[in-house]
Amino acid sequence: xxxxxxxxxxxxxxxxxxxxxxxxxxxxxxxxxxxxxxxxxxxxxxxxxxxxxxxxxxxxxxxxxxxxxxxxxxxxxxxxxxxxxxxxxxxxxxxxxxxxxxxxxxxxxxxxxxxxxxxxxxxxxxxxxxxxxxxxxxxxxxxxxxxxxxxxxxxxxxxxxxxxxxxxxxxxxxxxxxxxxxxxxxxxxxxxxxxxxxxxxxxxxxxxxxxxxxxxxxxxxxxxxxxxxxxxxxxxxxxxxxxxxxxxxxxxxxxxxxxxxxxxxxxxxxxxxxxxxxxxxxxxxxxxxxxxxxxxxxxxxxxxxxxxxxxxxxxxxxxxxxxxxxxxxxxxxxxxxxxxxxxxxxxxxxxxxxxxxxxxxx
Length: 362
What we know:
By secondary structure, this protein is α+β, with helices and mostly antiparallel strands. The protein folds into 2 domains: 5-80 and 317-360, no CATH class; 91-305, no CATH class. It contains 14 helices and 9 strands.
């Protein structure tokens, strides 16, 4: 077969299929899977149609006599370890956060991934899978996710993901559910920083912040678009020592007030954060706005452009493997300059040439 970067990324992966009847290596099956998803295919049968349509070109590209069917690719994926797969894709793409950059952490439920029937021979009943996403705000790129174990939750998965990422000097930002003492302690011990949202699930801290907050600096910004006007006011102040005692290295309170005007309707919201950083109000405003962007830049794109919420792929690690590969496609689209992900997907779906250009850049 030809020496193609995406093919080499999967070289050496274990092949757990029985020896009899093997015609296509694991690396070829996985490479075709990634190409097919970047082309906009949203299910295995759609992948099968795409493979048939491009059989001649793909055979020539990879230097093989035949191309595996979608069912062969699916069987290969059933034995793939999603952690190894995600690690290889990350190395292939090369997402390397730098010290000082903001990593937004947020969990997402793969809504169609649950199994309820008890007589399914290929999978035990289980709830919908949850993946914790790590999004590099400054680069607009996505790091390998962490699947939450069944019977566990996002709160326990977050410290594990932080350790697995093995980063130094970055700033982790996350929602109030994950503002836990263990999570913050893990971030500091691994040599990183944090911006943690605070709400009523930490009542002592939340009530104390509201009562004691004294702003020392203010930054305001107004944005107009999509028929609405949004004003954000960010204020910073010192976290009193008696409130900071239980939160490792906590120094700063950040208050964010948002006012949105849409036609005759006005919405107001106030959010609080704590951080171990001492930065300007403008810098905190940039980081926090980027942290909120994970919903639009990752979750929304996977749901709307890639049809993730509608997918009923639910066996083994298949839902996670699909989600990880969607992340790769988003990274590739953004790396070559696309800002509209639906447009990027249409572009790649029009011609195999466009997809090959996308992958050969890496």
